[in-house]
Amino acid sequence: MLSTALQFLLTTVFNLLTLVFLLRFFMQYLRSPFNNPLGLMVVTLTDFAVKPVRRIIPSFKKIDLSTLFLGLITQLILQFSLLLLRDFPIFVAGETAWLSFIGLSFLGILRTALDVFFYAILLQVILSWVNTRSPFSGVLDTLTRPILSPIRRLIPSTNGLDFSPLVALILLQMVNISVFKTLEVQLLSLF
User: Fold this and answer.
1) How does pLDDT run across 39-94, given as a tens digit for each residue?
2) What is the rounded distance in angstroms from the CA atom of residue 105 to the CA atom of residue 108?
3) Rounded CA separation 141/158 (Å)
4) Are 26 and 34 in contact (CB under 8 A)?
5) How far is Cα 75 from Cα 95, in angstroms, rounded to an integer?
6) pLDDT value at position 78?
7) Are 29 and 62 in contact (CB under 8 A)?
8) Which pTM does this prediction carry?
9) Residue 59 region, left (φ>0) first, then alpha (ψ -120 to 50), else beta?
């Protein structure tokens, strides 16, 4: 029972840390404004790791490789810790187990990236009902535009109602369930 609680705690903490690293990556890549409470929080929470790693891993064009690297390292630490808690003999495991371990880490990054967009769209919808002039509006608009714009071209708003966020949320969940869950089951079967 203690092992289950520890697994939950590790998964929560490391997934949140990965989420913040990826949020910083996407905010920089999409040129979101950082002069708002969300941007300042992301910078404050990630500067402890990003600044030293940025000295070693520079950006490539406008892609901040250091935050991606930190997200991957966070997922690697999480997967390694979870395997140790399950008493998996990771140090004597074969090549397929290590490939599965690395694959689960990359899958964690992709799933978290999907979560960034899912929650940004969901928060943007909620704020559109409550407070359209929220300090988060600029960031959320920048984060959601790459996903919502193509959907808006296909499904225009009807009588002032925009259904693109609903369609995007459904599509993101379908990708999560059909693609990522299937990959996760296949990777876990290699252990």
Assistant:
1) 999 999 999 999 999 999 988 888 889 999 999 999 999 988 988 888 777 676 67
2) 5
3) 20
4) no
5) 19
6) 93
7) yes
8) 0.89
9) beta
Beta bridge pairs of residue 60: 63
Q: Please report, as a single letter, which amino acid is at residue 44.
A: T
Beta bridge partner(s), residue 39: none
Length of the chain: 191
Average pLDDT for the chain: 89
Query: For residue 32, which phi and psi values (nearest 5 degrees)?
Result: -75, 150
pLDDT tens, 126-142? 988 888 788 888 899 99
Are 114 and 121 in contact by the 8 Å Cβ rule? The answer is: no
Q: Which amino acid type is present at position 102?
A: I
Convert the chain into a string of H (helix), E (strand) and C (coil). CHHHHHHHHHHHHHHHHHHHHHHHHHHHHCCCCCCCHHHHHHHHHHHHHHHHHHHHCCCECCECHHHHHHHHHHHHHHHHHHHHHCCCCHHHCCHHHHHHHHHHHHHHHHHHHHHHHHHHHHHHHHHHHHCCCCCCHHHHHHHHHHHHHHHHHHCCCECCECCHHHHHHHHHHHHHHHHHHHHHHHHHCCC
pLDDT reported for residue 90: 67
